[in-house]
Design goal:
Layout: H1 5-10, E1 18-19, H2 28-50, H3 77-94, E2 97-102, H4 109-118, H5 120-124, H6 132-141, H7 169-177, E3 183-190, H8 197-202, E4 216-223, H9 239-248, E5 251-257, H10 261-289, E6 297-303, E7 313-314, E8 317-318, H11 337-348, H12 352-355, H13 364-367, E9 411-413, H14 415-428, E10 433-437, E11 455-456, E12 471-472, E13 477-479, H15 483-495, E14 499-505, H16 513-526, E15 538-543, H17 561-566, E16 573-576, H18 581-593, E17 598-602, E18 607-609, H19 614-623, E19 625-627, E20 641-646, H20 648-664, E21 670-675, H21 693-700, E22 706-710, H22 715-721, E23 730-733, H23 744-750, H24 755-765, H25 769-772, H26 774-794, H27 799-802
Parallel strand pairs: 2-3, 3-4, 4-6, 5-6, 10-13, 10-14, 11-12, 14-15, 15-17, 16-17, 20-21, 20-22, 22-23
Antiparallel strand pairs: 1-5, 7-8, 9-18, 19-21
Helix pairs in contact: 2-3, 2-4, 2-6, 2-10, 3-4, 3-10, 7-15, 14-18, 18-19, 20-24, 24-26
Length: about 800
């Protein structure tokens, strides 16, 4: 349908305010002061983008006052600071505990400005003082080498959401609100951000907030109409359609639309007052009657021009209200005198002489518009979660282990005892620990958790849900079939001082590759900021792994998430591949106690052989890797070959290969090394967990062949160990993108991690076996053919493969 003039009018971001909530709660004096505060924030935003000197224009603006390279995003900044200005008002009016998240975090000038005015910035960075010298530094160092980032980075007081990669603001906000009953999270959603997949799914956060125990999220959809170079979709659909869309998600949307400052201030004030009262009413009713029904939470749609208050046009081209205002609207001001004059007039239109005193300090009546102390959004302790974090109370993980007489004789589901351990962790931390996952807690064998809590569910119930549904409105297991939303919730929960655990199928951990990247970058910067207190580590259980996805097929076979993890900085990443129950429990306990890491634990959920007693597992995990004595026969001698492994299935196949070789060649000296902590393979010069060259050479020798059976892609081991003395003799087997609907052994054979291939590798690489090992090689190749034939005939692996046990 072609839009009519009437529908185009309702899509306009210009004119006197049009709002759902009517009223004018501001006195003339209050409106004037609010507008002055907003003018100051806009002036600061422009100063950050353009100026390196003459911050208050106390002399004529000259080219040398302009930064040689201007970086930053003006387009979204005025709306971000407009919202911040009005949130300050309601914080003071209602004594709110509130934090602010800027989804379009590239508009950092719109956040940094009000944080500077309220004083929180100068308290953390005293050199950015509230005077002429401090203001000069503040302006010059924005988007400047060694200075202030152009997004809401970890260096930004009050930020737990950078907003550089778009799509996560609502899930982060929801995680922050969990178990914070008095907190309101104001989450600004950019209309470009609203086009991303993660944001689209995260509108459903309102189905996960319990109005009794949780805080509230107030989404504010900022419709400025444009991305970098295109219109935004939600800004170009009819008003009624957008309203129906948001109502369909379960919100009550309140619109504030226009560009006239005076009427927009009144409309925004009235709308925020109404939303705060509605949130308090929802929570009050639920908390009084004890019934946590799913409410319709309020949200705001702010339609205002992109680059609001900028010049209407430049050189005959539209600027304000168009995509040209997205970044630096006047990029050539150092060389273009007309543009320089235009910039000066633009900046002077905010009347800085009325906003700053003779010392270059924001005048007192503007600073008083901001809340005081920790009510300031830039100083709220929830946005520096380590300030409010309490240590987890943990049961003794040793009590959850597997007992057996001999190694390699019994099988157990590796993750099931972990679920029992997590159940009791949950019991001890019912206000500060949650478990997250995309509809897989039961599938991943963690369902013992339901003895302590249930899956959160506040939507409608069917009678059959009581038959094994494990649903409850006070549940603390959070499930939604969106890895993005679950990961975002967990990150928001951790960054505000709590603890959590997420499990997901290995192949689909890739869905959150980029989120992992962003969180790792966040932690890396936090480690450099003494004022940022440590938060609990992000713990990811990667299960339903490649080697037991024989039933789901090729699409579910991908161990490459580990390659993504290795790309990040060593001080924040950890990878563990425990081969059995007891080592998994030891690793999980360690990870839950840790801070400021991303811990990736790879453990399959299916039944696997058990190898180590609890005490052996603790020792092994503390070392991170080591020689397995019962599997080795080189005691007191130099080995002929080192058989190494990492991961549960690769460990079993490496052990089976070792048994084959010891039966065929009793005089062959084999050293068996198992790796739990993958970064032990890297040099201690590159990773804090890395082995020294001396220790690595002692374990792996300096000149003997190493056959390494690895859970993931084989080149990752080479990448980690390429500087080692004996790397030239390192031969790695791992996943090679060969799969389908296979049996476990057929999948292993296809990718050459099976016992027969490993035994053949040893024969090929140990000099004394090359000739006399020919008959054994033929035997092992015949075994591979027989295994494949059996699988294709009967659909399962041979009994001797399935029932294999360690024979020594």
């Amino acid at each position: 349908m072609v839009a009519t003039k009437a529908s185009l009018g309702e899509l306009s971001s210009y004119g006197v305010a049009r709002s759902t909530v009517k009223g004018a709660p501001l006195s003339d004096e209050e409106s004037k002061k609010l507008h002055a505060f907003w003018r100051a924030t806009n002036y600061l935003a422009l100063g950050m983008i353009y100026l390196q000197d003459n911050p208050l224009l106390r002399e004529k603006l000259k080219p040398e006052h302009i930064k040689p390279r201007m970086l930053g995003h003006w387009g979204t900044s005025p709306a971000l600071s407009f919202i911040y200005t009005h949130l300050n008002r309601v914080i003071k009016l209602f004594d709110l505990n509130m934090i602010y998240m800027a989804g379009p975090g590239h508009g950092a000038p719109g956040v940094l400005g009000p944080v500077y005015i309220e004083g929180a910035y100068s308290e953390i960075y005293p050199e950015k003082s509230q005077d002429l010298d401090g203001l000069t530094r503040f302006f010059k160092e924005f988007s400047f080498p060694g200075g202030i980032g152009s997004h809401c980075t970890p260096e930004t007081p009050g930020s737990i959401h950078e907003g550089g990669e778009l799509g996560y603001v609502l899930s982060h906000a929801c995680g922050a609100a969990f178990d914070n009953p008095d907190l309101i999270v104001a989450a600004v959603v950019g209309d470009g951000e609203a086009e991303t997949g993660p944001l689209a799914t995260s509108w459903h956060i309102n189905k996960f907030l319990n109005p009794i125990r949780d805080g509230a999220v107030l989404p504010i959809l900022n419709l400025n109409g444009y991305k970098i170079n295109n219109p935004t979709l939600l800004a170009r659909i009819p008003h009624e359609e957008l309203e129906h869309l948001l109502k369909g998600y379960g919100y009550i949307p309140y619109f504030v639309e226009g560009s006239d400052p005076q009427s927009m201030h009144q409309a925004m004030a009235a709308t925020l007052d109404h939303c705060v009262r509605q949130i308090r009413s929802i929570q009050g009713v639920a908390r009084d009657n004890g019934i946590p029904a799913r409410p319709q939470w309020p949200m705001i749609v702010l339609r205002a021009p992109k680059g609001w208050t900028a010049p209407v046009e430049v050189d005959g081209h539209k600027l304000e209200g168009f995509w040209r205002s997205h970044q630096v609207p006047l990029a050539g001001v150092r060389k273009n005198p007309e543009h320089l004059k235009l910039l000066e007039n633009w900046m002077r239109s905010y009347k800085p002489e009325e906003l700053f005193d003779a010392n270059g300090t924001i005048i007192a009546e503007l600073r008083e518009r901001a809340p005081a102390g920790i009510r300031r959004m830039g100083a709220n302790p929830h946005a520096n979660g380590g300030l409010v974090k309490k240590s987890l109370r943990l049961p003794d993980f040793r009590n959850y282990g597997i007992e057996f007489e001999k190694p390699g004789q019994i099988e157990a589901d590796n993750t099931r005892p972990l679920g029992v351990f997590l159940r009791d962790v949950m019991k001890l931390n019912m206000n500060s620990f949650r478990v997250f996952g995309p509809d897989e807690t039961t599938s991943n064998r963690l369902d013992a958790l339901y003895e302590a809590t249930k899956k959160f569910w506040i939507a409608e119930y069917f009678p059959e849900d009581s038959d094994g549904g494990e649903l409850a409105s006070d549940g603390r297991v959070m499930e939604m079939l969106s890895e993005h939303t679950m990961e975002g919730m967990l990150e928001g929960y951790l960054l505000t001082g709590r603890h959590g655990f997420l499990s997901t199928y290995e192949a689909f951990a890739h869905v959150i590759d980029s989120m992992f990247n962003q969180h790792a970058k966040w932690l890396t910067i936090c480690n450099q900021l003494p004022w940022r207190q440590n938060v609990a580590s992000l713990n990811l259980l990667i299960t339903s792994t490649v080697w037991r996805q024989d039933h789901n097929g090729f699409t579910h076979q991908d161990p490459g998430f580990l390659d993504v993890v290795v790309n990040k900085r060593a001080e924040v990443t950890r990878i563990y591949l425990p081969p059995d129950v007891n080592s998994l429990l030891s690793v999980a306990d360690h990870c839950l106690r840790s801070e400021n890491y991303i811990n990736v634990i790879v453990s399959d959920k299916q039944a696997h052989l058990q190898y180590m007693t609890m005490e052996e597992a603790i020792t092994h995990c503390e070392k991170g890797l080591g020689i397995w004595g019962p599997a080795s026969n080189d005691q007191g001698q130099e080995p002929d070959v080192v058989m190494a492994c990492a991961g549960d299935t690769p460990t079993q196949e490496a052990l089976a290969a070792t048994a084959l070789l010891r039966n065929e060649f009793p005089d062959l000296k084999i050293r068996f090394v198992n790796v739990v902590d993958l970064f032990k393979l890297q040099s201690d010069r590159e990773h804090p967990h890395g082995l020294s060259d001396r220790d690595f050479d002692s374990l792996f020798t300096v000149d003997k062949p190493i056959v390494f059976n690895f859970h993931g892609y084989p080149w990752l081991i080479h990448r980690l160990a390429y500087t080692r003395t004996n790397h030239r003799n390192l031969h790695v087997r791992g996943y090679k993108e060969r799969g389908n609907i296979n049996t476990p052994m057929e999948l292993a054979i296809d990718n050459e991690i099976d016992r027969f291939t490993l035994a053949i590798d040893v024969i090929d690489r140990v000099p004394q076996l090359k000739a006399r090992g020919a008959h054994a090689k033929e035997k092992f190749k015949n075994e591979q053919i027989a295994c494949r034939r059996y699988a294709h005939t009967f659909g399962i692996d041979r009994p001797d493969i399935v029932e294999w046990r360690w024979p020594f």
